[in-house]
Structure formats: structure tokens, C-alpha cells
Design brief:
8 strands; four-stranded mixed sheet
Length: 167
């Protein structure tokens, strides 16, 4: 019994000694640890904003990338410049000599024929619902009108390809 009491006394003294020797609280330890992993905020003031229509450094070839590769089971999401007054998205089959915009449903609205443009700043096409063919290259065009009335146009290749990993 004496050895138990001695072990308990020694354990208690050691715990008390550890608590007394620790001069910092938990928050101080956490803050000290976090100072080694802080984010560098010095560059946050240099946020790069993309050129908008009407800016001196804006050119129409900045509207779209040259190519967009989209999986057959994915969604294509694109956005026009936020300062655009009017936006027109069209998709063409380059094999069609008449260059008639393709007809398919987008958000429940037909895109093509009578309603051949989607006049929204964002374009979101669910590829499985669009009936666009796999392994085919389409022509995607974006035409915008700035608030000053100046027209800009750009086109890109849209490639729908098979998901080889999952098929």
C-alpha cells in the first residue's frame, strides 16, 4: 500500500510540475504553431481582373479559349464578360455548309432554328442531354455587345470526347 501511495504522490507531483513549468496557455501554443503556416497576404491587393469590353487592353480574342474539351458525361460551363450588354452563344456543326446553329434543348428551351441564340451571360450545357455527338468537333461562337455598343466576336473548337476510363 505504501508503494501505491508513493506512486500516486510522485505522479501527482510530476503532473503539478508539468503544469507549473508550462508558461503558455493552449491559445498561445496554437498561435505559435500557426505562425509557421500563415498565408502570404501581401499579394492579395494585386488581384488580376480579366479585361472587360471597353478596357484599353481588351481584345475580342480573349472572349474564348481556342479549344474546349468536354467529356461525354460532363457539363460545359462558360461565362461572358460581366459588363456585356448583349450576349449571343451559338454552336455550329462545321460539316454543315449552311452554318445553321444546332438545335437542342438548353435549360428546357430549344436552342436552334427559331430560337438560335442563348442570350445569357452564362452558358451551361449538360452534354448527355444536348445530343451533341461524341468524338466530333463543333464550332462555338460568342458574340457580345458592350455597353458602348461595340460588337465583339470570338469562336472556339468544342470537342466532345468519350470517357475512356469509365467506359
Amino acid at each position: 500500500m505504501k508503494s501505491r501511495n508513493i506512486k500516486a504522490l510522485i505522479t501527482s507531483l510530476l503532473c503539478l510540475l508539468f503544469l507549473i513549468s508550462c508558461s503558455t496557455d493552449v491559445n498561445t501554443m496554437i498561435n505559435d504553431y500557426n505562425t509557421h503556416y500563415t498565408k502570404d497576404t501581401s499579394k492579395e491587393d494585386e488581384v488580376q481582373k480579366s479585361p472587360q469590353p471597353g478596357d484599353a487592353d481588351f481584345t475580342e480574342d480573349q472572349l474564348l479559349q481556342d479549344e474546349y474539351f468536354v467529356w461525354e458525361d460532363a457539363t460545359l460551363n462558360l461565362a461572358a464578360p460581366e459588363t456585356s450588354a448583349e450576349v449571343y452563344w451559338r454552336i455550329y456543326d462545321p460539316d454543315d455548309p449552311t452554318e445553321t446553329p444546332l438545335f437542342f434543348h438548353l435549360y428546357g428551351h430549344p436552342l436552334g432554328s427559331d430560337y438560335d441564340v442563348w442570350n445569357e451571360k452564362t452558358l451551361a450545357i449538360k452534354i448527355p442531354d444536348s445530343k451533341l455527338e461524341i468524338d466530333k468537333v463543333y464550332k462555338l461562337t460568342l458574340q457580345i455587345v458592350s455597353k458602348e455598343g461595340k460588337r465583339y466576336s470570338d469562336s472556339a473548337a468544342l470537342v466532345i470526347y468519350r470517357h475512356l476510363i469509365l467506359n
